[in-house]
């Protein structure tokens, strides 16, 4: 979007995110901010394969969970600083992505989606029985920091800026992909695989690469989550609600758009916090009924999410300004 | 208008002074933040405990001389703090440990609670207590079973309830007594639902059994949301243990008893580890097929006129049901917490913490069958204990330890045979 | 002896899997579309049965028909209001539509009925039959047998009746069917009704024998995927065989490895099928 620098929405957004903790400095608000950033990171990671390439994974929690367990496992087994476990989580996730991608991407999209649910469930149940990873009880991180490298902070402020940096990196990477050939391939695949193939797009390879990249960053989100929370168990790592949240946030904001997941998170995380605190007792039930309803509405009326909705609602002025 | 400025200022200043003095002089309130699962899978337990906590707050905040030696019942409010009342702030973590963490943070920093209680699921207790430890706010764990909630070297976390290893040891003591009485206990089986609750207790039992040299013929974890348990029952039938210990929730407990009848499998004895076996819907559903099944409980309603009976009546008036063991344990922890705050005489966290560490409640001051309330240096109540009860006809009767028993233990269990 | 018990139990449960999976495979065969809310249809069938028993005091026949009818209507409504529009849309819409529907149905059920497991009060079907040492609880037996009959019935409906051949025609060649005067839209709505109705009866049958809660839809949905993958997408006879096989595998896994592993084995089988033989036993890929 090319507007005059002072009003560039991206710059404004970045500034707002940077100064948020300075304005809302209470621990609770900081936690909401951190939760928002984590959600934005996971959803943006999902977006690469689900939004841009159109391969709808509804089991992305498998990557999140692997990423979440790896740091705490390294800590519990070897006493290492949890962050050291993050690359292991990423490696495992990428391997899993390739393993799932190869057979299912040959078939129509539905197979892939079904496979993602089945594998995520499989891993969740298995981890619940596996003593090495704490079985149903789960794993914990260091209760008190042994040094700065443990990343166990009393205040959530460092988490906020670390996560913000990761989000910026991921979005920057996605931006670059958008502009290059890989991004073109992704869009072509989403528009129509057969046509893409006839244009010479290496469909199978591209899909697997997209899934692997998406998996790696989802894994990073998981690692950040478990380091911040200091706890992980099969449900919070691999549960279906983890997958659902990623999908709905990306889809709500606009799947396949750079800032789609971020916008989705900006709306959903505060909304979720509000329903948690206001209803007090009405929590889970209502939040997920709402999620289900929103997803159905998006699917039926505006698959492109809020970004597309915006375009349809303000066509002429927007189009004139952004004719490109 | 200028003439009114000085008098107005004086009036305002006076009002402020009076208001401020009112704040410090008269009774304060002590805020207790409670994080429980009020929705989601464990909602029934969370809601029941919430009602129990509200009854306890009522007992403390209002004068209830009919409740005898129960701490803080006779007086209205906390006597050492000028009759300060307890104010409960409930939050629903929905079984999500990350949310429990966030809510604990909010309760401490926004709602400014003085102490915290919670959180049922061990996963949520882990994260919420870590927050309390970080901020230096006392946290009373009322019922989570995982061992190392109090094992992390935390100073601010206390747990009033027995834990998995306590239950396991109780069972082993029971078995060795039974063996001495000539009952055959050559092997046991442990059937547990596989979330943190079932796994913690099962692990503890298997450990203790090893120490007590009782072979575990089968350890069968299963998912509490199974619709069909015949495979498990057939496995048990094959292994033929002398005692089967079930660590289950409500639906699965009922399903097991029914499936065992269907498949004609009756071990000499069945012991249920509270939870499912204590749910009000258990007895009506399986009384005709599970006669003699044993259960554990630290809570007994007692005879009419007793303190425990009266407390149960108060709870029943509020909810229409009898007080269950889990909620009762929460209630007991709540009383211990309030007693400590009273002894501290202030809302200063360090004073409350000290008072908690020095807690020494005697059995006659308790509503539960513990041997007392006394916290060791990890924060665990080392005097927590449990009874064993048995389903006879349509009620559970206290059968062990024999010193407290009301009726005689029937062994082997009758099941569905008369 | 115990092994035979396990096998019989597994087959009886598998029969019910076959029944509800046959609906899923029908939709897939006709429209190349997967209904992620299929498990929730089964779950709703169970709750409808509960409501019929509690409010109207009906017996198995009453709630069986009611569940079938109610879910049939729901299936048609879902098709007309939602599916019809997303069929021609992007993959994201297609998958999100029924996925979102599943969440909506599941959590509405949680909200209305709570997470507690429920079961039907004892009906006239109770007790256990002993045949040659094998104990068969009457509810399971009745449910399993009826399930097999209904699945077979669906197969007959599709292959031997006019309506059935119209449905199959649309699934084989939409254009040609239109030329023959068949309205694909109407047929597809009918297919959705049948699919949901089958799921509903399957739910009612399960309700006779097993307890449930709103969460069971998720597991049933996944089980249905596996059955359909094994049996071949589009093939009802395939679903019948595959359902029985999956029920059997589940029972044996639970008995040999432990109940925790029964779902793991089934899902792992699914992944293996995707790797090795996605078109299943008897279907088109």
Written description of the protein model:
The complex is a heterotrimer of chains A (324), B (418) and C (285). Chain A is built from 15 helices and two strands. With 324 residues, chain A is mainly α. A two-stranded antiparallel sheet of chain A has the order 1-2. Chain B has 418 residues and is of the alpha/beta class. Chain B folds into two domains: 2-162 and 303-365, Response regulator (Rossmann fold, 3-Layer(aba) Sandwich); 165-297 and 387-400, Rossmann fold, CATH 3.40.50.2300. Helix content of chain B is 41%, strand content 15%. Chain B is globular, with a radius of gyration of 24 Å. Mean pLDDT of chain B is 87; it is low at 17-26. Chain C is an all-alpha fold and 285 residues long. Chain C is built from eleven helices and two strands, in the order ααααββααααααα. Chain C has helices at residues 2-31, 38-56, 60-86, 91-113, 138-160, 162-172, 174-179, 184-209, 216-231, 236-256, 261-276; strands spanning 128-131, 134-137. Chains in contact: A-B, A-C, B-C. At the A-C interface, α4, α5, α11 and α13 of A face α3, α4, α9 and α11 of C.
Please compute the radius of gyration of chain A using only Cα atoms: 20 Å
How would you describe the oligomerization state of the chains in this entry?
A: heterotrimer
Taking the sheet with the most strands of chain C, its summary is: 2 strands, antiparallel
How many individual domains of chain A?
Answer: 1
- The total of beta strands of chain A comes to 2
Specify the number of helices of chain C. Answer: 11
Q: What sort of overall outline of chain C do the alpha carbons produce when their principal axes are compared?
A: globular
Residue-averaged pLDDT of chain C: 88
Classify the beta-strand content of chain C into a percent band. Answer: under 5%
Estimated structural class of chain C: mainly alpha
Helix/strand/pairing class of chain A, anyone? Answer: mainly alpha
SSE run of chain C:
HHHHEEHHHHHHH
CATH topology of chain C: ABC transporter involved in vitamin B12 uptake, BtuC
Total number of domains of chain C: 1
Largest inter-chain contact set: A-C, 50 and 46 residues
* Low-pLDDT residue intervals, each spanning 5 or more residues of chain C: none
> Which range best describes the helical content of chain A: under 10%, 10-25%, 25-40%, 40-55%, 55-70% or over 70%?
over 70%
């Amino acid at each position: 979007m090319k507007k005059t620098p002072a009003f560039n929405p991206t710059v404004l957004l970045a500034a707002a995110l940077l100064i948020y903790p300075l304005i809302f400095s209470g621990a609770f608000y900081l936690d909401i901010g951190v939760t928002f950033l984590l959600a934005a990171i996971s959803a943006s990671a999902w977006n690469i394969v689900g939004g841009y390439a159109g391969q709808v994974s509804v089991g992305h929690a498998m990557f999140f969970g692997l990423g979440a367990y790896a740091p705490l496992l390294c800590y519990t087994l070897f006493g290492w600083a949890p962050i050291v476990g993050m690359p292991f989580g990423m490696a495992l996730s990428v391997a899993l992505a390739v393993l799932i991608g190869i057979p299912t991407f040959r078939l129509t999209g539905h197979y892939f989606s079904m496979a993602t649910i089945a594998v995520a469930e499989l891993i969740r149940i298995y981890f619940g029985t596996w003593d090495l990873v704490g079985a149903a009880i789960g794993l914990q991180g260091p209760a008190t920091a042994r040094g700065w490298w443990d990343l166990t902070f009393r205040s959530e402020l460092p988490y906020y800026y670390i996560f913000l940096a990761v989000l910026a990196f991921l979005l920057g990477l996605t931006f670059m992909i958008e502009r290059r050939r890989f991004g073109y391939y992704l869009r072509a695949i989403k528009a129509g695989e057969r046509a893409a193939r006839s244009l010479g797009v290496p469909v199978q390879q591209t899909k697997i690469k997209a899934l692997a990249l998406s998996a790696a960053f989802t894994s990073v989100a998981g690692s950040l989550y478990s380091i911040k929370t200091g706890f992980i168990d099969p449900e919070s790592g691999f549960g279906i609600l983890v997958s659902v949240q990623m999908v709905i946030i990306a889809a709500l904001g606009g799947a396949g758009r750079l800032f789609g997941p971020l916008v989705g998170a900006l709306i959903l995380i505060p909304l979720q916090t509000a329903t948690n605190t206001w209803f007090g007792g009405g929590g889970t039930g209502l939040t997920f009924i709402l999620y289900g309803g929103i997803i159905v509405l998006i699917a039926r009326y505006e698959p492109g999410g809020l970004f597309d909705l915006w375009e349809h609602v303000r066509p002429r002025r927007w189009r004139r300004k952004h004719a490109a | 208008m200028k003439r009114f400025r000085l008098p107005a200022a004086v009036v305002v200043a006076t009002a402020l002074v009076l208001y401020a003095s009112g704040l410090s002089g008269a009774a304060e309130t002590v805020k207790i933040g409670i994080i429980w699962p009020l929705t989601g899978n464990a909602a029934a337990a969370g809601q029941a405990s919430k009602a129990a906590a509200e009854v306890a707050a009522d007992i403390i905040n209002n004068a209830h001389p009919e409740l005898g030696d129960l701490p803080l019942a006779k007086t209205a409010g906390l006597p050492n703090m000028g009759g300060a009342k307890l104010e409960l702030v409930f939050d629903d973590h929905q079984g999500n440990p990350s949310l429990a963490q966030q809510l604990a943070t909010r309760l401490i920093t926004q709602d400014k609670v003085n102490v915290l209680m919670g959180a049922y699921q061990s996963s949520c207790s882990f994260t919420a207590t870590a927050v309390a430890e970080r901020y230096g706010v006392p946290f009373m764990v009322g019922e989570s079973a995982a061992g190392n909630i109090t094992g992390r070297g935390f100073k601010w976390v206390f747990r009033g309830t027995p834990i998995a290893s306590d239950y396991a040891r109780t069972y082993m003591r029971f078995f060795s007594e039974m063996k001495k009485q000539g009952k055959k206990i050559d092997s046991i089986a442990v059937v547990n639902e596989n979330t943190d609750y079932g796994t913690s207790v099962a692990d503890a039992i298997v450990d203790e059994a090893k120490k007590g040299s009782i072979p575990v013929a089968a350890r069968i974890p299963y998912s509490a949301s199974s619709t069909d348990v015949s495979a498990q029952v057939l496995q048990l039938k094959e292994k033929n243990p002398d005692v089967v210990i079930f660590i289950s929730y409500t639906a699965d407990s009922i399903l097991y008893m029914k499936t065992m009848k269907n498949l004609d499998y009756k071990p000499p004895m069945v012991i249920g580890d509270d939870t499912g076996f204590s749910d009000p819907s258990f007895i009506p559903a399986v009384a005709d097929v599970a006669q003699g099944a044993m259960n554990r409980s630290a809570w007994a309603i007692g005879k009419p006129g007793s303190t425990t009976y009266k407390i149960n009546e108060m709870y029943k008036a509020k909810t229409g049901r009898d007080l269950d063991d889990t909620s009762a344990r929460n209630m007991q922890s709540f009383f211990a917490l309030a007693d400590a705050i009273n002894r501290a005489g202030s809302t200063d966290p360090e004073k409350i913490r000290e008072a908690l560490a020095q807690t020494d409640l005697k059995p006659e001051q308790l509503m539960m069958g513990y041997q007392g309330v006394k916290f060791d240096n990890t924060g665990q109540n080392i005097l927590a204990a449990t009874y064993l009860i048995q389903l006879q006809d349509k009620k559970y009767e206290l059968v062990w330890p024999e010193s407290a028993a009301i009726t005689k233990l029937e062994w082997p269990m009758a099941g569905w045979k008369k | 002896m115990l092994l035979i018990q396990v096998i019989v139990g597994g087959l009886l449960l598998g029969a019910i899997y076959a029944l509800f999976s046959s609906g899923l495979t029908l939709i897939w065969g006709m429209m190349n579309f997967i209904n992620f809310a299929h498990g929730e249809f089964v779950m709703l069938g169970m709750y409808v049965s509960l409501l019929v028993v509690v409010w109207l005091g009906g017996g198995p026949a009453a709630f069986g028909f009611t569940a079938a009818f109610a879910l049939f209507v729901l299936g048609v409504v879902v098709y007309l209001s939602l599916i019809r529009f997303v069929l021609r849309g992007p993959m994201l819409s297609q998958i999100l539509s029924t996925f979102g529907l599943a969440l909506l149905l599941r959590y509405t059920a949680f909200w209305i009925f709570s997470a507690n497991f429920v079961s039907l009060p004892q009906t006239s079907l109770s007790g256990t039959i002993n045949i040659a040492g094998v104990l068969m609880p009457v509810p399971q037996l009745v449910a399993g047998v009826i399930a097999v009959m209904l699945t077979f019935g669906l197969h007959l409906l599709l292959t031997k009746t006019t309506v059935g051949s119209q449905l199959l025609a649309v699934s084989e060649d939409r254009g040609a069917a239109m030329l023959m005067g068949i309205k694909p839209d109407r047929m597809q709505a009918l297919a959705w009704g049948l699919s949901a109705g089958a799921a509903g009866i399957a739910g009612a049958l399960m309700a006779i024998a097993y307890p449930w809660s709103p969460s069971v839809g998720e597991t049933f949905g996944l089980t249905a995927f596996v059955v359909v993958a094994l049996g071949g997408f589009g093939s009802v006879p395939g679903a019948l065989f595959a359902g029985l096989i999956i029920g059997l595998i589940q029972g044996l896994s639970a008995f040999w490895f432990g109940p925790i592993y029964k779902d793991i084995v089934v899902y792992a089988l699914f992944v293996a099928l995707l790797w090795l033989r996605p078109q299943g036993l008897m279907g088109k890929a």
